[in-house]
Design goal:
The complex is a heterodimer of chains A (394) and B (189). Chain A folds into two domains: 246 residues, 3-Layer(aba) Sandwich (Rossmann fold), CATH 3.40.50; 136 residues, Rossmann fold. The longest helix of chain A is centred in the middle third of the chain and has 30 residues. Chain A contains 13 helices and 15 strands. With 394 residues, chain A is α/β, with parallel strands linked by helices. Helix content of chain A is 41%, strand content 19%. Helices cover 37% and strands 20% of the residues of chain B. Chain B has six helices and six strands, in the order βαββββαβαααα. In chain B, strands 2-3-1-4-5-6 form a six-stranded mixed sheet. Chain B starts with a strand and ends with a helix. The chains are: A alpha/beta (394), B alpha/beta (189).
Chain lengths: 394, 189
């Protein structure tokens, strides 16, 4: 039986970590992730988990310790945000290239400066090329559910990659909402035991980890393999999401389609704004406007073909980016979605918006404006502005 | 109540506005309702004006925007009335509930929007007499329930008992329960 509880997003994720009971957690506190570490450290101190909690002096050390522990054969988790993720940078690539199934929350917070502790996705977008699976969550329930699934995805023999779970700082991490927790036993059974095939502490079968490769080595081939592996993780993400659905009643895939079937115009968005946008879609539908929404869950791997198939019937599409890739043509999500449509026939007109930077509130009016802009594009066949800002003060 | 209710809490850092917003949301769980409770994160200093928000709904809540047009504003510190606009964004039939020794008609004179319904209760005095500390947050919960019918007073009292029961001794729990009940009876509007 599931338990209905009132928890913040961070407390929900700490509960998921307790139920998973990882072998090792090495983490360093940073706003707005701090309360996960606090709660989990309490579980460790009170003997609720068997985890070896490694206190570290920085996020660079946190991820380094995770890499060492994971290579040794342990089930490893950590959590961070913003500047903390930035400080992990070089080790993120090591973790993914060593194929270490580390699971990490990154509670989305912008990168300074100006100094700002609030939500946007620029921290994890900066890590999008680091070789990690990146799964975005809309609310605390999804963050909890995805934490449990992430273990299975990361440790799947065909994947063996680190997974980053992403949810919006403060908006989700610090708001108390209603959600359901699974029974401890059910989680334990679902995640199972971690049995790595090769690991450092297997003294009968010694392996070398992290050795020098060099100019005439296999770096290039290694990167090709990483691409192939993360591509095939798509099937595993879907399979684990469905299996979780059987357990909990909540299934997950690469993305969620909301009223897209007969939609003329659509919005693609990540994270908590998807919830707000669903309300606007409902309002538009009440006024006989055929608006739909696609909430992307898996940003890495990026399901380009699946997105194309889902969105190809639309006449106009708006892509909302809660991050600014300074100097680029639009935000990161916009660029990839638009690229996925390049070879399509009768592709929708695609526009991009940068919104919500540094925690700027996203109102229903903001999303309504996007819907109205899309309607105008359908009516006139013309795009006034390919890339625009939403909610910026002029 | 059929639709979502949005509440804004005004207090000063240290008065427990955030705790009150959370307590109310958690009490709504006992009603099988959906809720969100979140503070406005800023420079939180002891004594500085702060806000917190509660949403309560019979349906799952999907919106993640700020609360800009609450139906109810609860003011934990009487000195905030007149120094900040506690009626900001409220509709004309909105409710302002103030912890104050002043009667509602006196408080109304200081508000920007004087069409709203004003209620007051001397929560600080009640808290001093029941809990022994001038912390008005739980007390205001009793007054809120009286003026909104968000839930039954017995259910709220039961929630205070179970929520406080985890952390506090019996005299603190009893004091808080008494505070909620007295505010429920003594609020005037």
């Amino acid at each position: 039986m599931a338990k209905t509880v009132a928890l913040t997003g961070n407390a929900a994720c700490a509960q998921a970590m307790r139920q998973i009971n990882p072998d090792v957690v090495a983490a360093y506190p940073i706003t707005p992730q701090t309360t996960i570490v606090e709660e989990f450290a309490t579980f460790v101190a009170n003997g609720k988990v068997n985890t070896e909690f490694i206190n570290v002096e920085s996020e660079h050390s946190a991820m380094s310790a995770c890499v060492g522990a994971s290579a040794a054969g342990a089930r490893v988790m950590t959590t961070t945000s913003s500047q903390g993720l930035a400080l992990m940078w070089e080790i993120l690539y090591i973790a993914s290239s060593l194929r270490l199934p580390i699971v990490m929350h990154n509670v989305n917070r912008t990168l300074s400066g100006p100094i700002n502790i609030h939500c946007d996705h620029s921290d994890s977008m900066g890590a999008r090329d680091a070789g990690w699976i990146q799964l975005f969550c809309e609310n605390a329930q999804e963050a909890y559910d995805t934490t449990i699934q992430a273990i299975r995805i990361a440790e799947n023999k065909n994947v063996h990659l680190p997974v980053m779970i992403l949810y919006d700082g403060f908006i989700i991490s610090h708001a108390i909402t209603r959600l359901e927790l699974l029974e401890d036993e059910d989680v334990k059974k679902f995640v199972g035991d971690y049995k790595p095939e090769k690991y450092l502490l297997d003294i009968e079968n010694p392996v070398a980890v992290g050795s020098f490769d060099g100019l005439h080595g296999f770096y290039f081939e290694h990167k090709k393999v990483q691409n192939e592996v993360i591509e095939r993780s798509k099937d595993v993400i879907v399979k684990v999401g469905n299996e979780y659905g059987k357990l909990s009643g909540r299934s997950y895939g690469l993305f969620e389609e909301y009223k897209l079937d007969d939609a003329e115009v659509g919005i693609v968005v990540l994270g908590s704004t998807a919830g707000t946008a669903k309300l606007v879609v409902d309002q538009m539908r009440d006024n006989n406007k055929k608006v739909g929404l696609l909430k992307l869950r898996s940003f890495r791997p990026f399901p380009a073909k699946e997105l194309f198939d889902s969105l190809k019937k639309l006449k106009a599409l708006a892509v909302l980016d809660r991050s600014s890739s300074t100097g680029s043509f639009g935000g990161p999500l916009f660029g990839e979605i638009r690229s996925a449509f390049y070879d399509g026939k009768n592709s929708p007109k695609i526009i991009g918006y940068i919104y919500g930077l540094g925690g700027r509130d996203v109102s229903l009016n903001d999303i309504e404006k996007v819907c109205n802009d899309l309607s105008d594009i359908v009516k006139t066949g013309k795009i006034k502005k390919e890339i625009d800002y939403l909610g910026v003060r002029e | 109540m059929g639709k979502m209710v949005e509440i804004r809490w005004h207090g000063r850092g240290g008065q427990g506005a955030v705790t009150a917003a959370k307590l109310l949301a958690e009490a709504a769980l006992g009603q099988n309702k959906y809720f969100q409770a979140f503070p406005e994160y800023g420079p939180e200093r002891m004594g500085a004006p702060i806000q917190a928000f509660t949403r309560i709904s019979p349906e799952p809540i999907e919106i993640h925007s700020n609360v800009t047009n609450p139906e109810i504003a609860i003011v934990l510190d009487p000195t905030l009335v007149g120094s900040i606009d506690v009626t900001e964004g409220l509709p004309n039939d909105g409710i302002v509930l103030v912890n104050s020794s002043e009667p509602p008609q006196e408080i109304k004179k200081k508000l920007n929007n004087q069409k709203v319904k004003v209620y007051s209760v001397n929560a600080t005095q009640i808290a001093l007499e029941t809990i022994g500390k001038p912390i008005p947050n739980t007390t205001m919960l009793g007054a809120l329930i009286k003026v909104t019918n968000l839930m039954k007073i017995d259910d709220a009292v039961e929630h205070v008992r179970s929520s406080f029961g985890k952390k506090f001794n019996q005299s603190v729990i009893d004091g808080n329960v008494k505070a909620v009940e007295r505010a429920y009876d003594e609020v005037s509007g």
